[in-house]
Amino acid sequence: MNESLGVILATEESPSTSEFSFAVKEKNVKKGQYVQVAQGHAILFGFISEVFKSNRYFERAESVAEFERTSSIPSQFPSDSWEYVIGVVKILGIFNKGKFERAFSPPSPGSSVNLADNTLLRSFLGFEESGLHLGSIEHHDVPATISMTRLLQKHFAILAMSGAGKSHLASVLLEELLSRKKEDGRVAIVIIDIHGEYCGFSHDPVFGSKTTVVEGSEIKIPLKKISPEIMTEWIPHLSAPQRDVLRHALSSLKQQKKDADGYTFKELVSFIDSTDVSKDEVKRALKRSLSELKRYHFLSRKTENPKLLSQIKPGHMLILDFNSIDSLRKKQILVSLMARRLFNLRKKGKIPPFLLLIEEAHNFAREKAEESEAVSRSIIETIAREGRKFGSSLCLISQRPVNLSTTALSQCNTHIILRVTNPNDLDHIQMSSEGIDSRVAKNITGLKVGEAIVVGEAVNYPVFISVRDRKSLKREKGAPLHIQAKEFEERQEKKAKNVEAFL
Ligand SMILES: Nc1ncnc2c1ncn2[C@@H]1O[C@H](COP(=O)(O)OP(=O)(O)O)[C@@H](O)[C@H]1O
Ligand SMILES: [Mg+2]
């Protein structure tokens, strides 16, 4: 048993089945520590939710003011030795006969309060020996090793303001997933990397061999693999007759070119021209809409990149680097394409269970989106709803949770929340995360960069963690501002000197 921190007080409200106060005798007691109290054969677990200090010499305003007028209280009285500390503990549950259950009776006043035992604490919180090591529990020497199945199976979201450490946490998580042994179960990973932040993995001595990067502009899919349903999802404003012509064209070409090497956009357009099933103006309007897709240059005759069937491998990561793509529409169409293909291949058992990680998820599953902006939302919501059965997991990362589809967000059964200060975002997170009460919500604004709270399916109780350092190479996103500024001035000066010398 760890050393005693203090004893439980009897006050009007304490101890109850949900909370108690204790007189602290150990100086090092901190808010956020886990404690335990022996209750017969059972052990009660709790969490220090607040720490107060008090001193009888400073309780009454009028006497404090009066004494301080002449000289200070500490110079006249032994006030220092009357300072005492009270800890408030929120009771989490009881460990009884090898099982964790709710507390049905309060601990007794006078009982000793001890720092929680590390091994018990790990199992109490639901951590696993072979779990994903994301960091450590604050104030305790306990690694936060979260169960992969519990985290991934019912999807998860990483939510926080910009710069709070979302991508850092995601990188730590990827390191853990890529380092798993075959016997522990490994998933394949696909990343929608909006800013090219994860590409450092491909140069890393350890993870490089497990990472493939595909540039967004290099993504290609043979036209013959696109079904009319997907194509009409990409161009949602088509009229019913336009849709009919498109459907007719795609299915006829599929038949005609069955033995050929696919067909080109040009062939699709000339087929539409030649068909007599519709009026000219319908065909013209359809061709105008198709020209947008053509502009994005990802529909090919037979080139396919990435080749999902061979490139999606257990313990392997495929990064789709969207850094060079400017058009949000194109990014949404590519996300819709990739997510749909992954999910279909997985349903047929042709690829291993996978995790699809989407950065800036609010841009791809927007809560209030125009029809044309919503192309990727429906497949993301489908995977969120049905993915669990087919080993298809989602990780949605967002700094604008207010804009994220509530359907998708509510299917993310674990939320990892880092620092958030915007009150709207805070309210939204509190509403969409079951495990967050007002006490936890209050602490979210006080989190520092790299500190997170995990709530939901992956843990037994909401838990604060400090995210560990990363082991993998970080891609430098340009030099710091002061270096860039200095370099700019130096270049200007050099130019000016050259001009002077020339004159
Ligand atoms: N746990 C951490 N330990 C050390 N540095 C961190 C940690 N979390 C974030 N950082 C640093 O803080 C900065 C912002 O983190 P980042 O993950 O890019 O934030 P976000 O993706 O939320 O905008 C980065 O320079 C990153 O290296
Ligand atoms: Mg980021």
From TrEMBL:
Gene3D superfamilies: P-loop containing nucleotide triphosphate hydrolases. Keywords: ATP-binding, Helicase, Hydrolase, Nucleotide-binding. The keyword ATP-binding applies. It comes from the Archaea. The keyword Ribosomal protein does not apply. It catalyses: ATP + H2O = ADP + phosphate + H(+); Couples ATP hydrolysis with the unwinding of duplex DNA by translocating in the 3'-5' direction. GO terms for molecular function: 3'-5' DNA helicase activity; 5'-3' DNA helicase activity; ATP hydrolysis activity. Its EC number is 3.6.4.12. It is an enzyme of class 3 (hydrolase). It holds the Pfam family DUF87. Residues 133-341 form the Helicase HerA central domain. Belongs to the HerA family. This is DNA double-strand break repair helicase HerA. It comes from Candidatus Bilamarchaeum dharawalense.
